[in-house]
């Protein structure tokens, strides 16, 4: 297993774009998302293992034993100790073909693994107006430097954590991404943030604070997000959710997203 320099990322384009509904691949290729890439052969790669933040990707040929042993060693000796020292509880692992499902137990040693059913939705056109859905008493605002400088705004630290879930810093988010939020009486009620902005596409990350759920806030924020996205060069917005998360799927459909496909991923839990 060998690390791949960013200057050679074009060599793994066929592998990453084999799972193109995950926009993280295009974002890595465009060097907009910092990542560490390992391949079996840096001249002619046929398998890759990628780490981008707390997301991991397996793609290509799952039958290369020497490469798989390298992945196992990287998890055991580097990734697991680092994550546990940081107090992290787990991470998501995505893959392109079912062949990886037979290898995952060996790659992750004794860790608890959940095989999760997920869904992917996409939207290319604004179909409704957020003004028709946003309940009274809530104010819509862009997530920008002025908002982050607001004194005493409740849940601001949680928003900043979400802003850095995909970007390396708040400043990087403000420079490369965008978001909308709803405010109610000095409190953030929810937000909708862009992820992996690249090639006229982005994905969406959404959160509604528990006290304000089931009021239509999530749908209204999503529509405001789409309005801004489509008026600023975005042509397609993607939405990922767990299949068991019916509320998330309903929000996507209400906001005009279409279901594209079902897929599976792994959730890996870290225990002492």
Topology record:
Layout: E1 2-3, H1 13-16, H2 24-29, E2 36-39, E3 47-52, E4 55-60, H3 65-85, E5 90-95, H4 104-107, E6 112-123, E7 139-142, H5 145-148, H6 156-163, H7 170-176, E8 179-184, E9 187-198, E10 201-208, H8 217-230, E11 236-242, H9 246-254, E12 258-269
Parallel strand pairs: 4-5, 10-11
Antiparallel strand pairs: 1-2, 2-3, 3-4, 5-12, 6-11, 6-12, 7-8, 8-9, 9-10
Task: Summarize it.
The chain is an alpha+beta fold. It is 28% helix and 31% strand. It has nine helices and twelve strands.
Q: How would you describe the overall organization of this protein?
A:
- With 272 residues, the protein is an alpha+beta fold.
- The chain has two domains: 109 residues, 3-Layer(aba) Sandwich (Aminopeptidase), CATH 3.40.630; 142 residues, 3-Layer(aba) Sandwich (Aminopeptidase), CATH 3.40.630.
- 28% of the residues lie in helices and 31% in strands.
Class of the largest domain, according to the CATH hierarchy?
Alpha Beta
User: Do you know the CATH topology of the largest domain?
Assistant: Aminopeptidase
Could you give the distance between the termini? 27 Å
Number of domains: 2
The chain-level mean pLDDT equals: 93
Number of helices: 9
CATH superfamily of the largest domain: Gcn5-related N-acetyltransferase (GNAT)
Relative strand content: 25-35%
What structural class do you assign from the helix and strand content? Answer: alpha+beta
Order of helices and strands: EHHEEEHEHEEHHHEEEHEHE
Largest sheet: 12 strands, mixed
Q: Any idea what the shape is?
A: globular
Q: List segments where confidence is low: pLDDT < 50 over at least 5 consecutive residues.
A: none
- What is the CA-based Rg, rounded? 19 Å
CATH architecture of the largest domain: 3-Layer(aba) Sandwich
Count of individual beta strands: 12
Helicity level: 25-40%
Strand line-up across the major sheet = 1-2-3-4-5-12-6-11-10-9-8-7
């Amino acid at each position: 297993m060998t690390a791949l320099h960013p200057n050679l990322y074009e060599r793994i384009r066929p592998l990453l774009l084999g799972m193109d509904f995950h926009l993280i691949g295009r974002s890595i290729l465009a060097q907009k998302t910092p990542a560490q890439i390992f391949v079996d052969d840096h001249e002619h790669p046929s398998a890759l293992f990628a780490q981008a933040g707390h997301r991991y990707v397996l793609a290509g040929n799952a039958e290369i034993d020497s490469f798989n042993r390298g992945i196992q060693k990287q998890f055991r000796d580097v990734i697991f100790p680092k994550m546990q020292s940081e107090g992290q509880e787990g991470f998501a692992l995505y893959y392109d073909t079912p062949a990886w499902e037979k290898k995952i137990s060996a790659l992750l040693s004794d860790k608890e693994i959940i095989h999760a059913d997920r869904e992917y939705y996409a939207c290319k056109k604004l179909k409704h107006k957020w003004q028709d859905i946003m309940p009274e008493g809530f104010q819509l605002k862009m997530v920008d430097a002025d908002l982050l400088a607001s004194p005493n705004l409740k849940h601001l630290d949680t928003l900043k954590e979400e802003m850095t879930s995909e970007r390396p810093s708040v400043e990087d988010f403000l420079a490369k991404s965008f978001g909308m939020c709803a405010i109610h009486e000095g409190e953030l009620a929810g937000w909708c943030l862009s992820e992996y902005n690249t090639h006229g596409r982005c994905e969406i990350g959404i959160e509604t604070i528990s006290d304000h759920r089931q009021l239509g806030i999530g749908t209204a924020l999503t529509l405001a997000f789409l309005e801004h996205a489509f008026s600023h060069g975005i042509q397609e917005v993607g939405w990922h959710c767990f299949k068991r998360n019916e509320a998330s799927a309903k929000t996507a459909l209400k906001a005009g997203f279409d279901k594209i496909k079902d897929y599976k991923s792994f959730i890996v839990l870290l225990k002492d």
